[in-house]
Amino acid sequence: MVxxxxxxxxxxxxxxxxxxxxxxxxxxxxxAPDSFGLCLATADGLVYRVGDTDVGFTIQSISKPFxxxxxxxxxxxxxxxxxxxxxxxxxxxxxxALEPDTQRPSNPMINSGAITxxxxxxxxxxxxxxxxxxxxxAGRELRVNDAVYQSESRTGYRNRAIGYMLRSVxxxxxxxxxxxxxxxxxxxIEVTCADLAVMAATLAxxxxxxxxxxRALSTALTERVLSVMTTCGxxxxxxxxxxxxxxxxxxxxxxxxxxxxxxxxxxxxxxPRLDGQGNSVRGVAAxxxxxxxxxxxxx
Length: 299
Ligand code: DON
Fold this sequence. Notes:
Blueprint: H1 2-14, E1 37-42, E2 47-51, E3 57-58, H2 64-75, H3 77-83, H4 111-119, H5 126-138, E4 143-144, H6 146-155, H7 157-168, H8 176-187, E5 189-191, H9 193-204, H10 219-232, H11 238-244, E6 249-251, E7 256-261, E8 265-270, H12 281-294
Antiparallel strand pairs: 1-2, 1-8, 3-5, 4-5, 6-7, 7-8
Organism: Nocardia coubleae
Family: Belongs to the glutaminase family.
Binding site for substrate: 61, 111, 152, 159, 183, 235, 253
């Protein structure tokens, strides 16, 4: 039944070629724009897939919940909360603003909060620990796409501005260039739609990877990550997403989206044509349709 519905949703969304791949990072525009993959992985280890589920693309902002997870594991809830709030901002992902009273980023899903989370990863070799963490969620060793990393690093002035702003108010207390470089690398980690489904299913399975049975995150911290994905994962489209899909989720400008039904399953979509808010057009449509057809609406 699930496989049949997945096929039908895929067919229903396939012909929509509206939107365009992100091009503010030049290398992101080099993808095949009409790739389309859809996966559903259950918390007990089944994976259903249709379309381009083995095509590599960069994780981009879908990295944010996973780096936040590692920061929480390294520093604990209270210490992380002193640096990053958990309030939706209602603003685009790259807003340059901090909370007026505390100077914290509003949440870890916008760039300022994600860069702060990256600053809280413990060393030595902080980026390797980030890569290891994502690999545990995916159940295989993930690597950086060097061309995308170089392209983002060459053009990432706005994120550098955010890093310097955070350093100037003391929210990060280490070299902002090193932290922003870590953030560029994490965004450039290459995944497939199938990887993202397993990563989402690991969140659904209380932090245990259903394929490898390895624990990637504690149950309590998984709950925190899913809560923040619910309120902040889709940025200024979060309200629309929660009302029409009803699942914790995260999107990335590489064209990926993950959505999680806690205790049950993870969904991933890859389709690089984006809407005006930076979310995959077919990704949003497929998640809406899957949620409706499988009655997944949860929050
Ligand atoms: O900060 C950036 O520009 C990117 N590397 C990540 C942005 C992103 O994926 C926003 N999400 N929808």
